[in-house]
From TrEMBL:
Species per Swiss-Prot/TrEMBL record: Asanoa ferruginea
Lineage: Bacteria, Bacillati, Actinomycetota, Actinomycetes, Micromonosporales
OmpR/PhoB-type domain: residues covered: 1-93
Taxonomic superkingdom: Bacteria
Family under the similarity heading: Belongs to the AfsR/DnrI/RedD regulatory family.
Protein name: DNA-binding SARP family transcriptional activator
Single biological process term from Gene Ontology: regulation of DNA-templated transcription
Residue ranges: DNA binding: 1-93
Length: 263
């Protein structure tokens, strides 16, 4: 059985889906998946479900929720097991059975390939990871503290992966096809200077020089209005290179522009 959290919570085995219909068992499963192969105390799970004042029936209810999850694991012939011990509950899950773990492994392999200079393999691996993303993680669950913390971690990991993937694709010359993605990116995260660097490069290398300079003016106005700041050295340096039509922007190594800008 495979578990999917990079989007709505799902459990699948082949073509069959297994569904927890009630919200609280879903929250229990999400907390156990967030701490896969690690014990999670019953007190911790109960706080996630009921806050600081759980009802007297909390322990019994939690046991019922765990039993319902175990029932689905059995029905789906899953190798994953929920174990009970003095420290609480542990959900044993193989890496390949949880999309968040597959995502993390592919991302690490892709970045390693990029560092070793194998652009095509690195970009391909990061693309495989990106395609596992189906939308906001655990989108069908309420924003309880542990769930929300895990969602924020997963979303930040995804933003970082997309930026690294874009760097690799720019180095491979995939400029025109990146423009739309990067425009959507700066609309969603308008304070990220790295996205503007990538957008300006994609536009310039697509022959859209005026639009590249307009993107710089846009971010400069935004930073001044919102933060009272000027763009950082990577953005200003790139603008200067575009104005003098630095040949390295079209043909050379882009490392000067794609490293050091982490906003």
């Amino acid at each position: 059985m495979d578990f999917y959290v990079l989007g709505r919570l799902q459990m699948r085995n082949g073509g069959c889906a297994y569904t927890l219909r009630r919200t609280k068992p879903k929250i229990v499963l999400a907390v156990l998946l967030a701490h896969a192969d690690q014990p999670v105390s019953t007190d911790r799970i109960m706080r996630e479900l009921w806050g600081e004042r759980p009802p007297q029936s909390a322990a019994a209810n939690l046991y019922t929720y765990v039993c319902s999850i175990r029932g689905l694991l059995t029905a789906g012939r899953s190798k994953a097991k929920i174990l009970t011990g003095a420290a609480g509950y542990v959900l044993n899950v193989e890496d390949d059975c949880l999309d968040a773990l597959r995502y993390r492994r592919l991302a690490a392999r892709g970045r390693a390939q990029l560092r070793d200079g194998d652009l095509r393999s690195g970009v391909a691996l990061l693309g495989q990871a990106a395609r596992l993303w189906r939308g906001r993680p655990l989108a069908d669950l309420p924003a309880t503290p542990e769930v929300e913390q895990w969602v924020e971690i997963l979303e930040e990991q995804h933003r970082s992966l997309l930026r690294d993937w874009t760097d690799g694709r720019l180095r491979l010359g995939q400029n025109e096809e990146l423009v739309g993605e990067l425009r959507a990116g700066v609309a969603a995260d308008p304070m990220c200077e790295r996205l503007y660097v990538q957008l300006m490069l994609a536009l310039y290398r697509s022959g859209r020089v005026a639009e590249a300079l307009e993107a710089y003016r846009d971010v400069r106005r935004l930073l001044a209005a919102e933060l009272g700041l000027e763009p950082g050295p990577e953005l200003t340096g790139l603008q200067g290179a575009i104005l003098c039509r630095d040949p390295s922007l079209a043909n050379g190594d882009l490392s000067t522009w794609l490293t050091g800008c982490h906003g």
